[in-house]
């Protein structure tokens, strides 16, 4: 093997190691930062210096050679594609005046002000100074969102900062590309036409690519199991095709493609967003390590020697406050709120990536038009200063200004069905207790919003992503999984237990569930209640209602119909595990929020059923007719399943009350309410072990999981058939209304 071959192999191995190490170490640092609840960028910046040539020398980005600019460019493109998927033009139109001004007037002030400062302090051209200023326009949602969650500013201010960070990325990138074109081409006469060509080619391919992705998904050409891979591959193809036509136009094309897919909302969009978010986390970790490891401490020393400190002072303490003052002019924001907005403006991964990308391109330019090292030093110094200084002090600053909200006290209820909506309405208090509903059922969310309740059409399984990205969840401190599916509630509790403390995660788990508390993440609540859908049906029909009771020493709630759900103590809510546990946790003067299930379980079930006149010669024939009638009355009820359950019940515990009355009863998974049919038999059935022939039947079908209501209905039958007079009156009824009158009387 000759020396050239060995050299090539060694170079390839070094490049492979650099790429693999950057991906692996970046992901590990991201995980660590999430665990420590620190901004991801902080550990990535420190890790880049520590692992690179200036530190432990474990990572050498230069080993990638000419591949590095391509990797950075593609990674930035994919990051912008993912960000564009979340953009919504309607949301931009609905944002406040301050946000719209920040994205227009504020961008101009930041750009021109930073450029002017760089021009006055550094010995550089006006065009290069404007390029430097354009790179720090973006604030970056990957930094601002975790920061807002940690400092807990008032919701109005959090909303402004959040939307500025989400929407400003694309504006900043477009501005930076125009400035870069201007600098490289040497003036507007060449730069503007070249920029327009870049915009035209990028926009055209982006529109075509975005609509192609949507169209193929709409036509079901893309199987669900590869939709994520298809979206990723399509974004890379769009980016690559545009770069062939005009370098750096790929960033625009993937942004537009992602925006179109996000606006058109194909069926698989939710899964694509989740998948892309994970890819972006991986890319951000890799990018920061590769880019920061390239930097040398000497270039930062030179930067501050040249007056970089004055530039940072100007950017943070002069230009940002002027931008906020102009954007908030004539709005209700007071001086304290403007001061906080002026202080919080951290830069992130897009600024860093674009700076390094331009620096790499400029370093290969035959005609130097500026100092690439100065460009990178300026941008990374702004990133470090804004993230570290502002990030560490923003919470204290907000507290001093009286703009910090108390510790998260709001609740998230996963399940926007009728029970969830009514419970949220009962728990909410103006300016004190907020409740947010989550559901994947669009109809439930639409109903919640129509009723004036905060609600999001999102999957509660995406706990970490929701908690980090959704502004509406910034005050959330407690989560209640309230779906009909016990296993799903357990999984939801586990997912949310990873982002909140276990004692702040709750879920509906009935007492008869085989799962023990030791096997749960979080705490089970409402153990005596039926399925949420059953409770929702009762609330809808006025058969149940919420009541608030002020607890006093020695007080007790009537058993059976009263179910304590929450204890309100001051501004705190405490969920009640089950009815019997109330006395262990309640204190005098506590408010107890209860669900009161009205009496008369049998009467309500009879209203849903009817009276039948049957002719049968055996118990099997009776069961067959009952199963058929149940299916005919409610098609969702399986005739075969009812017949099977009745037969099994007859073998295990025959349903005979005595006095010629039978009470066959089953559960049905697809029911949300209870049904009771009454049947008169034309000819009595003689049953072994029964002293009287069966001539009257109560046939009960209850929702699965509603054991309390089911048993209460059976108890009502036994109570009302206790005397011969009542039995005679019931058996002689001509209609179900006569039975209801007899029982009600």
TrEMBL record:
It holds the Pfam family Na_H_Exchanger. Keywords: Antiport, Cell membrane, Ion transport, Membrane, Transmembrane, Transmembrane helix, Transport. It is found in: Cell membrane. Signal peptide: none annotated. Residues 603-745 form the PTS EIIA type-2 domain. Its main location: membrane. The keyword Calcium does not apply. InterPro entries: Cation/H_exchanger_TM, Na+/solute_symporter_sf, NAD(P)-bd_dom_sf, PTrfase/Anion_transptr, PTS_EIIA_type-2_dom, RCK_N. The chain crosses the membrane at residues 15-32, 39-56, 68-89, 101-122, 128-148, 160-183, 195-214, 226-242, 275-293, 299-319, 340-358, 378-398. SUPFAM superfamilies: NAD(P)-binding Rossmann-fold domains (SSF51735), Phoshotransferase/anion transport protein (SSF55804). It is a multi-pass membrane protein. This is Cation:proton antiporter. It comes from Thalassobacterium maritimum.
């Amino acid at each position: 093997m000759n020396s050239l071959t060995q050299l090539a192999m060694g170079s390839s191995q070094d490049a492979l190691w650099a790429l693999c190490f950057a991906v692996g170490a970046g992901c590990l640092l991201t995980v660590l930062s999430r665990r420590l609840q620190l901004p991801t960028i902080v550990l990535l910046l420190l890790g880049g210096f520590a692992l690179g040539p200036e530190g432990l020398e474990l990572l050498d980005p230069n080993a990638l050679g000419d591949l590095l600019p391509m990797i950075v460019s593609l990674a930035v493109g994919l990051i912008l594609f993912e960000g564009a998927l979340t953009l919504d033009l309607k949301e931009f139109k609905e944002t406040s005046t301050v946000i719209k001004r920040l994205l227009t007037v504020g961008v101009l002030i930041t750009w021109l002000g930073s450029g002017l400062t760089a021009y006055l302090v550094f010995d550089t051209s006006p065009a290069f100074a404007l390029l430097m200023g354009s790179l720090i326009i973006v604030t970056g949602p990957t930094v601002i969102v975790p920061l807002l969650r940690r400092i807990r500013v008032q919701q109005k201010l959090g909303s402004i900062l959040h939307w500025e960070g989400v929407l400003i990325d694309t504006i900043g990138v477009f501005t930076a590309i125009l400035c870069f074109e201007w600098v490289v081409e040497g003036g507007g006469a060449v730069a503007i036409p070249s920029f327009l060509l870049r915009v035209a080619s990028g926009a055209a391919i982006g529109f075509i690519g975005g609509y192609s992705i949507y169209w193929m998904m709409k036509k079901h050409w893309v199987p669900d199991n590869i939709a994520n891979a298809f979206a990723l591959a399509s974004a890379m193809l769009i980016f690559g095709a545009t770069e062939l036509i005009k370098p750096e136009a790929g960033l625009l094309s993937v942004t537009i493609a992602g925006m179109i897919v996000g606006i058109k909302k194909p069926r698989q969009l939710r899964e694509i967003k989740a998948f892309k978010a994970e890819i972006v986390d991986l890319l951000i970790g890799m990018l920061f390590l590769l880019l920061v490891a390239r930097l040398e401490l000497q270039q930062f020393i030179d930067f501050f020697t040249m007056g970089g400190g004055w530039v940072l002072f100007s950017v943070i303490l002069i230009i940002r406050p002027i931008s906020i003052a102009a954007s908030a002019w004539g709005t209700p924001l007071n001086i304290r709120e403007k001061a906080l907005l002026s202080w919080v403006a951290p830069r992130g991964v897009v600024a860093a990536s674009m700076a390094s990308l331009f620096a790499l391109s400029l370093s290969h330019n035959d005609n130097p038009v500026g100092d690439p090292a100065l460009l990178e030093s300026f941008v990374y110094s702004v990133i470090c200063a804004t993230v570290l200084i502002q990030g560490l002090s923003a919470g204290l600053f907000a507290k001093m200004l009286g703009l910090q909200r108390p510790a998260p006290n709001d609740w998230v209820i996963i399940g926007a069905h009728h029970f969830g909506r009514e419970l949220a309405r009962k728990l909410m208090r103006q300016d004190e207790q907020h409740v947010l509903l989550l559901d994947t059922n669009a109809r439930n969310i639409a109903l919640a919003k129509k009723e004036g309740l905060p609600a999001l059409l999102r999957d509660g399984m995406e706990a970490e992503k929701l908690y980090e990205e959704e502004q509406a969840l910034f005050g959330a401190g407690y989560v209640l999984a309230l779906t009909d599916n016990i296993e799903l509630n357990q999984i939801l509790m586990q997912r949310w237990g990873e982002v909140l403390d276990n004692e702040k995660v709750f879920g509906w788990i009935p007492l008869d569930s085989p799962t023990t508390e030791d096997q749960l993440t979080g705490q089970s609540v409402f153990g005596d209640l039926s399925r949420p859908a059953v409770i929702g049906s009762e609330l809808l029909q006025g058969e149940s209602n919420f009541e608030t009771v002020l607890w006093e020493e020695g007080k007790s709630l009537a058993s059976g119909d009263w179910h304590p759900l929450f204890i309100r103590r001051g501004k705190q809510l405490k969920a009640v595990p089950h009815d019997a546990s109330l006395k262990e946790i309640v204190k005098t003067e506590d408010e107890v929020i209860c669900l009161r299930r009205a009496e008369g379980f049998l009467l309500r079930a009879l209203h849903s059923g009817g009276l039948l006149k049957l002719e049968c010669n055996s118990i099997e024939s009776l069961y067959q007719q009952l199963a058929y009638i149940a299916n005919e009355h409610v098609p969702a009820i399986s005739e075969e399943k009812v017949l099977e359950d009745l037969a099994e019940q007859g073998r295990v515990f025959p349903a005979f009350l005595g006095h010629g009355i039978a009470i066959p009863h089953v559960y049905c998974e697809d029911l949300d309410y209870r049904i009771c049919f009454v049947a008169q038999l034309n000819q009595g059935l003689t049953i072994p072990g029964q002293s009287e022939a069966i001539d009257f039947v109560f046939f009960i079908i209850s929702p699965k999981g509603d054991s309390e209501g089911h048993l209460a209905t059976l108890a009502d039958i036994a109570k009302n058939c206790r005397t011969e007079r009542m039995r005679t009156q019931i058996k002689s009824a001509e209609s179900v209304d006569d039975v209801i009158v007899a029982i009600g009387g």
